[in-house]
Amino acid sequence: MLSLVIPDDYPAVMAAGKAYRDLTAAHAVAYYDSLPGTEETLIERIRDFEVVINIRSSSKFTERVFASCPKLKLLSLWGTGTDNVDLAAASRHGVTVTNTPGVAAVSIAEHSLMLTLAVARKIIGLHNRTVAGEWAKGQSIQLHGKTLGIIGLGAIGRQFARLGQGIGMKVVAWTMHPNPALGFDLVDLGDLLRTSDVVSVHLRQSPQTVGFLGRDQLAMMKPGAILINTARGPIVDEAALIGALQSGHLAGAGLDVFDMEPLPKGHPLTQCETAVLTPHCAGVTPEVLEAGLALSIENVFSFLSGTPQNVVNG
């Protein structure tokens, strides 16, 4: 019998899915619809199991967690991000880590486009003033003919680049692994920052990408440009971004991710009228949820059959 636990399904998404019902029909599953909250609680929930399906990135799989769970053989992540997992520690303790690449690409790209349009068209402010009885026809930004700079050409970056082209934007890109066959105009990072009217971040968070866009890089951006981040908050220096918004150097920012999540009440970003903020929900649609949860379970069965797929720690 498969020894499997889901330690952190809150807010609950797994239990409502068809893939989960199929899994529980075949195997006994230990299931928690609350966050562990502490490392000790996470260890307590998973130490007796061979397989963990991880739902929330707030659950941190550290060296201590792996060392305390000698039975653990597979950590199946729902989602593509691995910044909540010490991958080297997992390998040292013989734990295979898998993820669900690509399933949210369309949804996150659509969300990136929505944020871009919302900032450029000043939708939040216009909506609020219209509801308040005003009729304020403020100036907005037309995107057709403007330049969209994509940082990172993974599945999401490529999808958003295509959407940008679809509304008539010129697309340039910078990526860590340049490949002309991707079909986009690849440029130096500095050139991208200096020439793009919209810069959109699509990198994975890693030690190499934390603070990737800092004060100097934001200062290089074209005056009046827009920054979009649907990747991870720490990739952009948050304090430097707030300064660039407050000074008016940037026309605005569309952000789905932050250094601290949930975003604390009264955070300086919430005081920036040119920022459009959403609660790390770009990839949360019924289609993405079902596909991602199904793939996280499929990864379990592939591992058990001896043909692991979507392995992220070698």
What does this structure look like?
The chain has 11 helices and 12 strands. By secondary structure, the chain is α/β, with parallel strands linked by helices. The protein folds into 2 domains: about 5-105 and about 285-305, 3-Layer(aba) Sandwich (Rossmann fold), CATH 3.40.50.720; about 105-275, NAD(P)-binding Rossmann-like Domain (Rossmann fold, 3-Layer(aba) Sandwich). A 7-stranded parallel sheet has the order 8-7-6-9-10-11-12, with helices on both faces. Strands 2-1-3-4-5 form a 5-stranded parallel sheet. Helix 3 links the parallel strand 3 and strand 4. Helix 1 packs parallel to helix 11 and helix 5 crosses helix 7 (about 155-165). The mean pLDDT is about 95.
Q: Helix- and strand-based class?
A: alpha/beta
What is the fold-level CATH name, i.e. the topology of the largest domain?
Answer: Rossmann fold
Please give the CATH architecture of the largest domain.
3-Layer(aba) Sandwich
- The CATH class of the largest domain is Alpha Beta
